[in-house]
Amino acid sequence: MEMATRIIADSSFGCAGQRCLATSVAITVGEAGTAFREQITSVASARKVGYGLAPEVEMGPVITAESKQRIESLIGKGASEGAEVLVDGRGAAIRGYEQGYFVRPTVLDNVDPRSEIAGIEIFGPVLSLTHVQTIDEAIDVVNTSSYGNMVCLFTSSGAAARKFRYEVQAGNIGINIGVAAPMAFFPFSGWKESFFGDMHAQGRDAVEFYTQKKVVVERWPREWSRKF
Phi and psi for 151 in degrees, rounded to 5? Predict the structure, then answer.
């Protein structure tokens, strides 16, 4: 749990959440909910925020004042939809950089998967928590989303991992690793509203796109006959 929490925190709050594959929603299953809630709250609260090039700083500012305003408004939106703000990153002031566009790590709890905040790419250091009781419920939450870019599972169960990889509707899947951007020899396989076009841009799909293919059908009978 400790390592999973650190990996998820790095994905959610690294680069101040300004990555297309930053973790936005964490779905906990069963009794993992309480332990994860406590640990992610502690990690988020303790993260060192400040000037991004300072060696002791773990998270820098967001890119513009408009981005800061948007992220903070979405945090408020989540609260108005019924989420509990466990760690509130709004109104951050960093000594010596009071004019900087800082939003501290934020954790929203009990986020309804059907809420607006759950379906928005916040592009900021905000993690939403959703709690379910079974792996089937967790997969259902993922599959009912209109997006399907990347999803990860942290588990010690091989059976759960096998079920997850075959049933979840997402193009990029991680098992016990953080959200990883596939290298050039893997297809970047977004699904549903996370993909535009006919073929994916990396891996075999890219080769197929630039390949003029030929189909040859042959038959070499020892004796010619209409009998097959």
Answer: -145, 145
Is 15 noted as a catalytic residue in this protein?
no
Number of domains in the chain: 1
Is the pLDDT at 155 greater than 80? The verdict is yes
With respect to residue 117, please indicate whether it lies within any of the assigned structural domains: yes
117 contacts 106 by C-beta, under 8 angstroms: no
Q: Report which secondary-structure segment, H or E, holds 8.
A: helix 2-13
Residue 122 structural domain: 2-133
Residue type, position 103, single letter: V
How far is residue 49's CA from residue 213's CA, in Å, rounded to a whole number? 53
Extended beta strands in the chain, E state: 25-29, 84-87, 106-109, 126-132, 147-148, 150-153, 172-175, 191-192
Give the tokens for residue 32.
């993992």
Query: Would you place residue 184 in the very low, low, confident or very high pLDDT band (cuts 50, 70, 90)?
Result: low
In the set 1, 20, 54, 93, the catalytic residue is: 20
Average pLDDT score, the chain: 90
Residue 138 lies in a domain: no
pTM: 0.83
CATH code, domain with 107: 3.40.309.10
Share of the chain above pLDDT 90, in %: 69
47 in any annotated domain: yes
What is the pLDDT, as a whole number, of residue 57? 96
Closest CA to 20 of 188, 176, 153, 146: 188
